[in-house]
Each structure stands twice: as C-alpha cells, then as structure tokens.
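Working notes for the structural subgroup meeting. M.R. asked for a predicted model of this chain before we commit to crystallization trials. I am recording the input and output together here so anyone reviewing the notebook later can reproduce the run.

Input as submitted:
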Amino acid sequence: MTKSELLNSQTQFNFEASLEFARSMDEQDELKEFRQEFILPSKLRGKNGESCVYLAGNSLGLEPKRTREYINEELEDWADLGVEGHFHARHPWLPYHEFVTEMSARVVGALPSEVVVMNTLTANLHLMMVSFYRPEGKRVKIAIEKGAFPSDQYAVASQLNFHGFSVEKHLLEFTPRPGEDTLRTEDMLKLIEDNKDELALIVLGNVNYLTGQAFDVETLVQAAHKAGVVFGLNLAHGAGNLLLKLHDWQVDFAVWCSYKYLNAGPGGLAGCFVHERHGQSFDLPRFAGWWGHNKANRFKMPDRFEPLPGAEGWQLSNPPIFQLAALRASLEIFDRAGMARIRAKGDKLTGYMEFLLQEIAAQAAPGYLSIITPAGVANRGSQLSLRFQGGKGILDKFKDEGVVCDFREPDVIRATPAPLYCSFEDVFRFAEVVRRFAAEGK
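Returned structure, recorded in token form:
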C-alpha cells in the first residue's frame, strides 16, 4: 500500500446497532478499567438518574480520581515544610516540571529534551513565533487554516502587526473549496508551492477545532521545508487524541493545552515542543526568563541570560505546582494505557458513533442530521462534528437526557467519545437519544 493509500484508507469495523453489541464491545475492551480512574459528573445525570454520557472531552476532560490526592499532597507539604518544600517535598518543587516531561514526550512523539510543560497555549504560541517567525525580504507571510481557532487567528494577526505587516496582505489561509467544509491536502500543498518565495511560517491546528478534520502533517511538513518555510502546530485537539510523531515528522515547533483530552483541569498548564535541531540554536531571538536559564548557575543570579539547551530554554517562570500535580495525575494514566492503544480504541468508538448516526440520518427527514468530520481514521481523531436541524437548541435537549456535548458557532455540535472514559454503551445511548429525537421531529 502506498503512503497516500494508507493515509486515505478506512479501517473497517463490523458494527451492529444494538445495546447487546455495544456491551459486548465493552466487555472485550482492553482499556475498560481506565473508566474507573475518572469521575463522571454527578450533577449531569439523565432523567432516570443514570450516569451522564460525557462527550465533551474535546472541550474539558474529566477529572482523574487521583487529582485531588496529588494536589492535597502538595498542600500538605506546603503546610509542613514551607519554603523547604522546594527541596524536601514528596515530589520536590524545584524540579517538579521534569516529573511530567518524559510522559508528555511520549504523548506527542518527541524526545524528552524537545518538550517542556509551561504557561498556557497561546502564551507558548507567541513565545514560539518570537523565535520562529523571522520575516526577511519578500519572505514575510504566515499561513493558517481558514476557520482556525480564534486565539490562533488573533495571535498570528498580532505578530504580523507587531512586525509592521497587515493581515490583509500577509496572512494566507488554507481554504475549503466552495460548498465543502474541510480541506484537501492537494489544495494545501498548492498554496505552499504558489507562495514559497513569500511564505515564512505555517501555523496549523493539526485537528481543526470546528470540523474535527486531522491534517496530513507529515506531508505538509515536507512540502513546507522543501520551500524553506518553518512549520508549527497547535495540538490543542491533537495531544492525547491522535498518535503523534512530532520528532519523526520534523515539525519545527508545537504547542498544546492540557485541559481537553489530557484531563488536567480548567486552565491546566500547556506544553511546548521544539525540535532538537533548534534546541541549541542559542542565536535564535527569544523572550527570556530566569527558569529558562542554565540550571547549574541559575541561583547565582547572573545578569546575563544563558539559555538551557532544548525546549526548557524557552521557559520564563517557575511553574505552578498544583497545576503540575493535576497534570501528573492524568499523564500517569496515559502512560499506562499508551497512545497506540488509546487511538485504536478511539477509532473504534468514533467509527461506531459514525455508523449509528449515519443509519439514523438515512432514516430521518432530509437534512435532519449531517456529519461534517471526514470519514476514515487517518482524517480525524475522536471528535465528530454534527449539524442538526434545530442547531443549538438541541444541545439543551441533550442535557435533559444526560448527554453532554458542546456547540460551536455557527451551527456545529461536537461529540467526542474520549477512549479512556467513554464506552460503547455510552455511544449507543447517545445514538438512541438522537434516534428518538429524529423520530419525534425535535
């Protein structure tokens, strides 16, 4: 099979639209025990008191049961040790961010030296663009996908403005064809080729937040580098969702949040990747802070900044320990499960949801339900983006049934069966609600 055929192929599953089938799939699921590691929201139950069907992990992941324990340990050590907790806490605070480095690297397919957990996603994106958006001569343009998450759009626009350029002239957008919701790889490659002499940077969400489309990152990186263009990723909907290989793909930099698929809690710390070929490029401009300084003499308080090698050299401040503790609680679960197994189950769960919804759509009134996320496991992660007649109004009806999804303007409901805590029975229950609504014309 050629690379192109592999990327476009669909894994075929033999599904059945029955509760018995869903339960049999759950019984065979080798990750089923991980559901017990998370807390299902007790105040979001259905009308009959059953546990909720939580399909909003692409927006905010569920709380691991160990999160409270891990944060409480740090509260206790702070109470018992005060400042000495930096050195003598059960997990000393001084190197605490290092406790999540290797686990984070395994989630995104990187070397440990290429990864650091720090700040929040958009702050990290700006720090990366300070270093990697270096307009020169005619090569000044930035490309993003049309319909990128607004924070990406704002960040890129502000970087252009900061350098004295305009969004109207210097921002390029990968744009779907008329009448289509998602992008075609060949069109993206053409934009790169057509603008290769003027394009300085590509910033792509590797999974589009609205459509759920996953892009062919490896092919796009190769095209960008051939054209002399720096390539960066926003992994907000990729980290903890897709099987990533940032190092092997030669991505220049990437950023991600941890409160969605990675379950680190609202406002959780973000991650940052810098490929090892840039890790000792100390001549790269960067905004500096003391936590990115050489550890060997950091506390000697020198007046000249000496960056650490690797991604750690982009750190600014010592990180918040409670947030790191929450992230550690979740990453330990990911490390035990492994991203390959998580993605394999995610493909089956999402495929099952697609199968059931397509069956319902075929029997419902024309236009009642459509799926805008591309078919095929190479083209998406665990999110399906749906359009219903009734738009946002159906979201409240779902909540009344104990089904938790989310809505994004103008007319998309996103449903995400996160593999670590969602079951095939959850997917079936969701589909049965949709089936009933379709029959009742809601």
